[in-house]
Amino acid sequence: MRFDIITLFPELFAPLLTSGITRRAYESGLVDVRLWNPRDHAEGNYRRVDDRTFGGGPGMVMLAEPLFHCLTAIRADRQDLAPTPLVLFSPIGQTLNHKAVAQWSDSAGAVLLCGRYEGVDQRFIDQYVGQQISLGDFVLSGGEIAAMALLDAVARLQPGVLNDEGSHQLDSFNPALDGLLDTPHYTRPEVWQGHAVPTALTSGHHARIERWRREQSLHLTAMHRPELLVQARLAGKLSREDETFLKEDQHASPP
Ligand SMILES: C[S@@+](CC[C@H](N)C(=O)[O-])C[C@H]1O[C@@H](n2cnc3c(N)ncnc32)[C@H](O)[C@@H]1O
Fold first, then answer.
1. Catalytic residue among 2, 24, 116, 156
2. Is residue 7 a contact partner of residue 37, using CB atoms and an 8 Å limit?
3. Are 21 and 151 in contact (CB under 8 A)?
4. CA distance 92 to 97
5. What is the pLDDT of residue 250?
6. How far apart, in whole angstroms, are the C-alpha atoms of residue 52 and residue 58?
7. Active-site hit among 65, 152, 171, 249
């Protein structure tokens, strides 16, 4: 899978590509990342990539022409049979979630455009952008952090990237967890500041541990994301034992 990233700040990606899980995915070639600066495709002595907004008002807008030349260079370099999708990070877009990340992790990749300033000339968006992705209902200074969030989430789903193969399957939102939230985790010491680890986890009894984890997932999901519980129920993922637990769980409010 290959992600070509159009950014005015390619240096922001260095920590992502040189540390942790994302470094492993990048160095193994499982997630190929190429950085492209539109400034390298801009004309004139100043290699201008932005200009004032028509109609007046504060802020600058990213010029369409350098972005077009940059995209043309990427497409020539990728030599894909079909044009690779161009994704723009924008507050307008669909909010990123696990389902979208899982789809991207199964794809051949994409060209990711990181906006800056007030955004990108709308004519470039209309002509070339296929999809817009948002990180949430807030405004970032640029699309780079959103691109890094997508790359990180996609990298950890690649087979062989995590130390413990399959551990991501037990993370929140995953089908193996029926789309519920993850259980709480504890490590040593067994007692910390007078608080002991739940006895089920130190019982050594596999079935009891599994049941405790399931109930914690159900409890946390009911408390924090009840709509996920509704989805799991509609998909027939909740057992009779799960439903009995939810009815009796005093601290959650099952939907
Ligand atoms: C300062 S923002 C522009 C905000 C734009 N004028 C607006 O109000 O929607 C600059 C760039 O940051 C990125 N960005 C800002 N917020 C984002 C978000 N919530 N999700 C993804 N990208 C975002 C986009 O690429 C955007 O073009």
1. 156
2. yes
3. no
4. 15
5. 74
6. 8
7. 171
